[in-house]
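Cross-check.
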Amino acid sequence: MNTFPRIHIIFFVSLFFLMSFTTEGGDRPTVTEPEVSQIFRNIAEITDRASIEWILDDFLIAEDPDLVERIEIIDVSNIGFGRDDIVVVYPSLNVYIVEQPSRELSEIMRSWGIQEQRRDASNELSPDYFYPDFADTLSQEEMSARQVELVQSSIISDLLESVNRNYRDKPISLRFERDQEGFTFQIWNYDRDSFAFQPRPPAAPDSIGVYDFMYMVAADTIIIADTVMYDLMYINKSVQEIIEIPPEPADRQQIRTTSLP
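Predicted model, tokenized:
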């Protein structure tokens, strides 16, 4: 028996019916528009022949084991695989309810789990908190060993920054899946009036400007710099001294003339 089946997550679409009753047309109820949402549930996929035969026998499912390609067990209650879960048989697509598995099979089913990468955090944390700035300080070996953590943190940071920029409320649910053919993206459980598109901020430059300091010492009229320069810098300074001798008054000139012998 393969005790480690393939485990993955599926979505269920849930309908919450809000019903109102009216006397029009008798006592027949009128159903209002339902609110459609989604929930996450784990699903175990069993494909090996021995496990399929054991599960069919243990669950008393009247299916021909030779015709069954795989079995999916859905953890509907989200408390671990076991009683009251849903069994889907392929390719017939017949659906059964797990009533009471044997003790041995119950213990094996409880050991099933998904290797998921999940992160729970407070709304008070900013997107920059998750971005792995420390990655630049890691060696190549350390970066390879923490690759999943670094990628997850980077995606969380970018996604949270976009949601905070474009959605002004808190309740919102997102789904993104991608395979070889394309991707699926969904948004639900949101308030339409809380959407407010904000353009993406301009990208930050990938380089940082570095400014060198140039110290200059003046010696006469030559500038000497301690930084290597590609162009020479010359500063010319000229000084002109002017002595102004005002003319003597006319009366003094006359006196000086008459006083001569």
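Residues 16-23, 257-261 have pLDDT under 50 and may be disordered. The longest strand covers residues 35-46. Passed to J.P. for a second look.
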